[in-house]
């Protein structure tokens, strides 16, 4: 019996040592993985711009606008860290390299204290060089801080604000309509005013900060495409599941392309961040749309 007990105790001690070593290795690997993931999410991905190229066929697009290129950005959230003026100017250079006809900005230029950043915002965005125009709507953070300062800054940059307004491009007798609805969360949205101004002819797209407004805009039957931001793609997104944290009015259509009735909804992941200032599996995005004519129309 004694030899058996001795053997049993030896086995137990050996297994205990092995278990401790394995456990220690697991703890070490988890710690290293955690540090690497945090470094990536805090330092690398927020500056790793994804240029998403999307081809869209719009049923009401006139042949004169075949190949129209729209660059969309959203949720700049300019501040001193990490969305500095210098970083934004580099993003503007990337946009200009895409040679867009239009640039569309779908809100949230700032997070806080716009008086500190408005001048920098105006300088950086003033370097955009689309062939036609840069158009924009405001977001909830713009209204929560000081919308007047933001409006002055984007006007200084030569940007056309489309808060409950329609802007129409004309090529010969053909029209392409870009409408904007002011911020939904701030209670400034007036789709009724937009519909009153919207010409009956020509394709129409809608800029609105919050993507879940798509259910309302699609129901009008008047818009081919809605462009939004707001959700940041969740900022942190794990594979195979929806982002765990999404804002109000950004939960149903949080990222990418959706078909909402007869209308396409596209939600841009944005460029900046809100706290915590990390991104994981949700790279900042410039979306470049190329519009095609419906050959069956």
From TrEMBL:
Keyword Hydrolase: yes
Annotated Pfam families: Metallophos
UniProt-listed InterPro entries: Calcineurin-like_PHP (IPR004843), Metallo-depent_PP-like (IPR029052), Metallophosphoesterase_sf (IPR051158)
Annotated GO biological process: lipid A biosynthetic process
Gene Ontology CC annotation, any one: membrane
Residues in Calcineurin-like phosphoesterase domain copies: 68-233
Alphabetized Gene3D superfamilies for the sequence: 3.60.21.10
Superkingdom per UniProt: Bacteria
SUPFAM superfamilies reported for this sequence: Metallo-dependent phosphatases (SSF56300)
Regions crossing the membrane: 20-42
Keyword GTP-binding belongs to the record: no
Gene Ontology molecular function terms on file: metal ion binding; UDP-2,3-diacylglucosamine hydrolase activity
Keywords linked to the UniProt accession: Hydrolase, Membrane, Metal-binding, Transmembrane, Transmembrane helix
Record's protein name: Metallophosphoesterase
Organism: Symploca sp. SIO1C4
Origin organism lineage: Bacteria, Bacillati, Cyanobacteriota, Cyanophyceae, Coleofasciculales
């Amino acid at each position: 019996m004694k030899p058996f007990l001795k053997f049993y105790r030896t086995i137990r001690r050996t297994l205990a040592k092995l278990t401790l070593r394995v456990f220690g290795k697991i703890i070490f690997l988890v710690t290293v993985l955690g540090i690497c993931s945090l470094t990536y999410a805090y330092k690398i991905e927020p500056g790793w711009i994804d240029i998403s190229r999307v081809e869209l066929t719009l049923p009401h697009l006139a042949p004169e606008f075949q190949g129209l290129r729209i660059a969309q950005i959203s949720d700049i959230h300019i501040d001193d860290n990490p969305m500095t003026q210098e970083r934004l100017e580099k993003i503007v250079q990337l946009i200009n390299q895409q040679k867009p006809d239009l640039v569309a900005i779908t809100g949230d230029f700032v997070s806080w204290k716009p008086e500190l950043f408005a001048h920098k915002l105006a300088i950086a965005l003033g370097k955009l060089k689309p062939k036609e125009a840069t158009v924009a709507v405001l977001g909830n953070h713009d209204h929560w801080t000081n919308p007047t300062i933001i409006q002055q800054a984007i006007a200084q940059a030569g940007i056309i604000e489309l808060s409950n307004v329609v802007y129409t491009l004309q090529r010969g007798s053909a029209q392409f309509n870009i409408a904007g609805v002011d911020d939904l969360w701030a209670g400034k949205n007036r789709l009724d005013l937009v519909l009153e101004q919207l010409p009956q002819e020509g394709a129409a797209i809608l800029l609105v900060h919050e993507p879940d407004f798509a259910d309302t805009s699609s129901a009008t039957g008047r818009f081919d495409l809605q462009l939004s931001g707001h959700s940041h793609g969740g900022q942190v997104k794990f594979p195979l599941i929806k982002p765990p944290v999404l804002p109000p009015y950004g939960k149903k259509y949080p990222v990418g392309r959706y078909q909402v009735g007869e209308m396409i909804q596209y939600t841009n992941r944005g460029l900046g961040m809100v706290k915590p200032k990390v991104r994981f599996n949700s790279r900042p995005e410039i979306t470049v749309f190329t519009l095609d004519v419906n050959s069956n129309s």
